[in-house]
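Supplementary Note 3. Input sequence used for the single-chain structure prediction.
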Amino acid sequence: MFVLLVLMIGLRHEVGGDWSNYVGHIQRASFESLERAVLRGDPAYSLLNWIAAQLDLGPYFVNIVCAALFGWGLVVFCRTQPLPWLALVVAVPYLVTVVAMGYTRQGVAIGLAMLGLVALADRKILRFVVFVALAATFHKSAVILMPLAVLAGARNRVWTALWVGLASVLFYVLLLEDAVEQLQYGYLEREYQSQGAAIRLAMNAVPAMVFLKYRSRFDMSPADRMFWTWMSLGALAFVGLLVVSPSSTAVDRVALYWIPLQLFVLSRLPDAMAQQPELNTIWTRLVVAYSAAVLFVWLFFASHANAWLPYQFYPWVWFWQ
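The predicted structure, written as C-alpha cells, is reproduced below.
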C-alpha cells in the first residue's frame, strides 16, 4: 500500500490546483545558486526543486520524494491504530487526495508530523522534536506543533517544557520569523478566504466532540487519553478562530495539522461504540460510508475538484506522447 501511495501521489501528471506553481518553482530554481534557492523558501523542499532543475527531472522527482515521506508517515501512523485499514480509508478522501496531491509541501509536513505523533505515543520526545523540525523544513508552519510535546505526559514535565520551549523558539527564529510579516500580509491583511474552510474544520470538530463525549470508551493509556483530549479541544478552538479571524485561509491551513485526529478517532470508533461484538461491523461500515460520502461530495461539488479530474499518471501520459 505504501508503494501504491507513492506511485499514485508522486507520479501524478497535471493533477492539483497548484500544479503550475510547482513547475514554476523548478524553472525558477534552474537560474539560482544552491544557496539562493535553499534560503528563498522552505529549505528541504527548495533543495529538492534545485536538484530537479539541475538534473532536468521535472516535478516528478520532487513529488515522488515528497510522496514517499508523506506515505511513510501515514502508513506508520495507521499501523499504530487498532484498525489500520480503516484509518487509511478515513485518510484517502481528503488527506491523501486533496492535501498530499494538492498541497505538496504541507502534505510532507503532515506526514512527518504523524511520525512525530507516533513517537509521542511512545514518550520519545526528542524524536518528536526531530520529526517536527524536519516537517518545518518542508513547510515552516509545522513549527507550531512543537509545543505539543509538553502534552505528551512526560515524567519530568517542567524539564520537557523548558527544552521544548527553547527548541520552539530556536526553530521559530531560524525558519519562521522572517516569513511572519509576509504571512501576515498574505493571509490576514489581504483577508484571504478559503471556500469550504468551515466544512473542513467541521471534519475535525465532529470527531473531536465524539472523543470528548465518549473518551472513557476508547482503550488507551491515561496519558494518551489526555493528549488526544487536548488535541480535540484544539480542533474545536479552530472553529472559534474561524469566526473571529479575518482570513479563513490562515485558520484552514493551520487546522490541516489536526487531520490525524480524524484518523485516530474514526478508526477507533467501532471498538469504542460497539457495545456488542456484532455491532462492530456495522460501525465499521458506517465509517467507510462516511469516508466515501466525503470523497463523493468533494469530487462533485468542490470548486477546485476539476483540477484533479481526470487523474493522469505520468508514465501512461509519457507513453502516448
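Residues 157-189 form the longest helix (33 residues). Residues 2-312 form one domain.
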